[in-house]
Design brief:
Number of strands: 7
Helix content: 25-40%
Number of helices: 7
Structural class: alpha/beta
CATH superfamily: Glycerol-3-phosphate (1)-acyltransferase
CATH topology: Glycerol-3-phosphate (1)-acyltransferase
Strand order of the largest sheet: 1-7-6-2-5-3-4
Order of helices and strands: HHEEHEHEHEHEEH
CATH architecture: 3-Layer(aba) Sandwich
Number of domains: 1
């Protein structure tokens, strides 16, 4: 996208400085409980794949991960306002054209993982209107294929249709090794679609576990 610098992957101090602010906002809006934090890799590049419930999902997930920063892709419309673009860019967000062949953004996403950072993705491509996991698009598997990336499935669960001040459970599953996705350099479009479906099914399994007891 014009105006965004894809040439270098950066992580800034603002991300960490705003973490305490994010935690305050989180507590004001929802009662959030994290599960499976022991499954989060301590180092290396990989993809976090989660279902998508609301605009603050990247914040909720990021606050569950200490000592490392996440890079999330967002629809290009979010970057058309100069102030929003500045804030999202400083928080490691980058724009992508949804439903199109945005090779520049895709290559940037692949580099994020290859260079040892964490890429956050929502395989559905958009927020769920009924607050239930939907069907995955191919993007998560395509990027995993090109970066030969492991995938960490995450579910965001609400039993109250995401109403404010209700309980949310953010559950981190076990890492899906790249080899388990069944992808290689010769994988077809159907293979990629099946891999994306597999990732989404793992997310759904976590989602179906509901809240922690």
């Amino acid at each position: 996208m014009k105006g965004f610098d894809y040439s270098q992957i950066k992580e800034g101090n603002l991300y960490e400085r705003l973490r305490p602010v994010g935690k305050v906002i989180e507590k004001c809006l929802y009662k959030i409980e994290y599960a499976g934090l022991e499954n989060i890799p301590k180092d290396g590049g990989y993809i976090i794949a989660s279902n998508h419930m609301c605009a603050l999902d990247p914040v909720f997930i990021a606050l569950g991960i200490e000592d490392r920063q996440l890079h999330f892709m967002g629809k290009k419309e979010l970057f058309e306002n100069s102030f929003t673009k500045f804030c999202l860019s400083k928080l490691n967000g980058f724009p992508i054209v949804r439903g199109g062949a945005d090779s520049e953004a895709l290559n940037y996403a692949i580099r994020i993982v290859k260079e040892g950072y964490i890429l956050g993705m929502f395989p559905e491509g958009t927020r769920s209107k009924d607050h239930k996991p939907g069907r995955a698009k191919s993007g998560v598997a395509l990027i995993a294929k090109e970066a030969k990336a492991d995938v960490l499935p995450v579910s965001i669960y609400s039993s109250d249709d995401m109403k404010k001040h209700t309980k949310l459970t953010i559950r981190f599953g076990e890492v899906i090794p790249f080899e388990k996705l069944g992808l290689n350099d010769d994988s077809s479009r159907d293979d990629i679609k099946e891999a994306a479906k597999f990732v989404m099914n793992e997310i759904v399994k976590l989602w179906e576990m509901g809240h922690c007891e």
